[in-house]
Specification:
The chain is built from 19 helices and 3 strands. By secondary structure, the chain is mainly alpha-helical. A 3-stranded antiparallel β-sheet has the order 2-1-3. It is globular, with a radius of gyration of 25 Å.
């Protein structure tokens, strides 16, 4: 405890770091206040009642979790920063498939990055308008959610503008945190939305277990959550270090080494290079059965029991298919962002090599085979994390609290927390203070080693 208090004093004594932290907290407070401002003409109580009557396994519940409850309250931040995240993912995928965007990412440096940011913002506006219209249509189909005295045309036009403006404002807040605060702003906004639902879920679980199973079960749950978080941290930080050797060059008549010549470094191949993307893609696909089931019900009046089971996130068929999709998408997305040929070319251009491996094709094949081997345990772990909420819900944990045992929420919380703590520790170490841990250092998701290309 004394060490912890001393670390807090050290953090507070660094004026630059203190100002950044206070600025970040202020911006996050502004975002949370905006999450409670309801759209004109919307009845938030009716929306919350409708949400309580819906099943837990739907896309709306996922979005509401990321927006900190703003979606089910009809808030001006109902869409959160999800349109911006969607636009960023689309631009990232275009960078893999379209030569023009690939050139901007790889070869044009700062100017290319500015162009990609501009395209991302423009695409965010378009996605916000489309998603805003869809959200307002959803409000229109929810009983009692819209004031009947409001003109439908004015309601749709005005609130479409407000929702798009709310997304852009949230994106701007995130950029301000990145520029003047601590951590990645957009990621912190998503994280604060997820954390906002944690106290209510924890209190509900605490009350439930004390009244039924007793305090021992609650202690076991907390211990299980601790070990799940610990495993998530290990997999996020886990890398396979490939040692590389920079060749010496003759300088005049001597073999004096230049700063990077004759030195050793390593290429960090991540055990989980794809992050949370496989879970996001798999979840998007798992929502398709719901659409099919609704279509079948509308046309024939009956539903398939199999389709019904696929709309239950705690059913065995749902989790088997979900697990398989996560594993497959992990391999696909890793193949997109980890390019062995690019690594081999980089090493050749830098006059460096992997000890015991010939440059060129042999290096490419070596990195490719190593990536395939380490992706297997990473994909299995990611699949287990994806279905962990269903596993713990099956043994008695409430649905609301089970979400924090795995899935996208847990990986986002762990990844963002590690990145933010890594930045804070770097400030402490620069000022000759002790770090946040006794030995070693906190590593973010992209710290250390040779980083090649976007997404590494």
């Amino acid at each position: 405890m004394n060490k912890f208090i001393e670390t807090l004093k050290n953090i507070w004594s660094i004026k630059e770091l203190r100002d950044k932290i206070l600025f970040t907290l202020l911006i996050l407070a502004v975002y949370r206040i905006g999450s409670f401002i309801v759209l004109p003409g919307v009845n938030a109580a009716a929306l919350e009642q409708a949400a309580a009557n819906r099943g837990a396994n739907d896309l709306l519940g996922l979005i509401n979790n990321f927006t900190g409850g703003a979606f089910n309250q009809g808030s001006i931040f109902a869409l959160g920063v999800m349109p911006y995240i969607t636009a960023s993912i689309i631009l990232q995928l275009l960078g893999f498939a379209v030569p023009y965007f690939q050139k901007l990412q790889m070869h044009e440096g700062e100017s290319g990055r500015k162009k990609i940011n501009q395209y991302t913002r423009l695409l965010t506006v378009l996605i916000s308008i489309v998603q805003g219209g869809t959200y307002l249509t959803f409000l229109n189909t929810t009983a009692g959610a819209i004031d009947p005295n409001v003109s439908p045309s004015i309601f749709f036009l005005g609130n479409s503008i407000i929702l798009a403006s709310g997304t852009l404002f949230a994106m701007w807040l995130g950029e301000r945190i990145t520029d003047k605060g601590i951590g990645n702003g957009v990621s912190l906004i998503i994280m604060i939305g997820i954390i906002a639902t944690l106290p209510r879920s924890f209190v509900g679980e605490f009350t439930k277990q004390l009244s039924s199973a007793g305090p021992l079960i609650l202690v076991i749950e907390m211990a299980a959550l601790f070990f799940v978080i610990l495993a998530a941290i290990l997999i996020v930080q886990g890398v396979r270090k490939i040692p590389i050797q920079f060749a010496k060059k003759m300088v005049g008549r001597s073999t004096d080494d230049l700063p990077t010549q004759g030195a050793r470094d390593y290429i960090p191949l991540k055990v989980n290079a794809s992050g949370v993307m496989p879970i996001i893609f798999a979840q998007a696909i798992m929502f398709l059965p719901l659409t099919v089931a609704q279509w079948a019900m509308a046309n024939s009046g009956t539903q398939s029991n199999f389709l019904i089971s696929l709309n239950n996130w705690k059913s065995l068929p749902y989790n088997l298919i979900f697990f398989t999709l996560v594993v497959l998408f992990t391999y696909v997305y890793t193949a997109l962002i980890v390019n062995p040929k690019q690594y081999a070319t980089y090493l050749k251009n830098q006059n460096s090599f992997i000890p015991g491996v010939k440059p060129g094709e042999d290096t490419e094949e070596y990195i490719d085979s190593l990536t395939t081997r380490i992706t297997f345990p990473g994909s299995i772990f990611l699949g287990l994390i994806a279905i962990m909420p269903a596993i713990v819900a099956a043994v008695g944990v409430s649905d609301a609290f089970a979400i924090f045992f795995g899935g996208t929420s847990l990986l986002i919380l762990v990844g963002v927390a590690l990145d933010t703590l890594a930045q804070i520790e770097s400030y402490l170490l620069m000022r000759k203070y002790d770090g946040l841990v006794k030995s070693g250092k906190i590593k973010g998701r992209s710290s250390g080693g040779i980083q090649i290309g976007a997404g590494y």
